[in-house]
Amino acid sequence: MFLNEMTDDDLAWLTEIGEPTHQTAGTVLISEGTEGPDVYILLSGRAAVVGAGAVLAHLAPGDVAGEISLIDGMPASATVILTAPAQVLRINRAALMVRLESGDGLAFRFHRAVARVLASRLRGSNQRAAMKPEVARMLNQLKAA
């Protein structure tokens, strides 16, 4: 979980610059292909990450959304939609980037947390792909070659 990597001081700073909002189920936090100015931390509720016609991930309290675009500067790679009423901490990307570029301890912990989130999502994606029959068939063909 993203927030587990942060110290109490980090959380206090994020809360200070962030805007807590209450949102209803069905609210779209991030739309695929858009360049959103914010990063979101789910404080309560649930969300789904949807792309390529499938649910790619489920987000729970403490998870982050918008981190990929923050890191690579590209438009959103998926849509994030709340699946339950939620409290969300919206953090302005520009304000966050100023702090992250300072290279202080928060910057290190934030980037490490994002790296762990992305690694976890990649592992999950790899496991789901490995379960598909056509992937298993291709692997068997490669082994036989």
Describe this structure in words.
This protein is an alpha+beta fold and 145 residues long. It contains five helices and eight strands; from the N terminus they run H-E-E-E-E-E-E-H-E-E-H-H-H. The protein has a four-stranded antiparallel beta sheet. A four-stranded antiparallel beta sheet has the order 2-7-4-5, with no helix packed on it. Strand 4 and strand 5 (54-59) form a beta hairpin. The termini are far apart. The mean pLDDT is 88.
Number of helices: 5
Q: Which bin fits the share of residues in helices?
A: 40-55%
Q: Proportion of β residues?
A: 25-35%
The helix/strand class is alpha+beta
Q: Regions with pLDDT < 50 over 5+ consecutive residues?
A: none
**CA-based shape:** globular
Radius of gyration: 17 Å
Helix-strand sequence = HEEEEEEHEEHHH
Note the gap between the termini.
41 Å
The order of strands across the largest sheet is 1-8-3-6
Look at the structure and give the mean pLDDT: 88
For the largest beta-sheet, the strand count, sense and barrel status come to:
4 strands, antiparallel
Total beta strands: 8
Highlighted features:
145 residues, alpha+beta, 4-stranded antiparallel β-sheet, 8 strands
Summarize this entry quickly.
It contains five helices and eight strands; from the N terminus they run H-E-E-E-E-E-E-H-E-E-H-H-H.
Topology:
Blueprint: H1 8-17, E1 19-23, E2 28-30, E3 38-44, E4 47-51, E5 54-59, E6 64-65, H2 67-72, E7 79-82, E8 86-92, H3 93-100, H4 105-130, H5 133-144
Antiparallel strand pairs: 1-8, 2-7, 3-6, 3-8, 4-5, 4-7
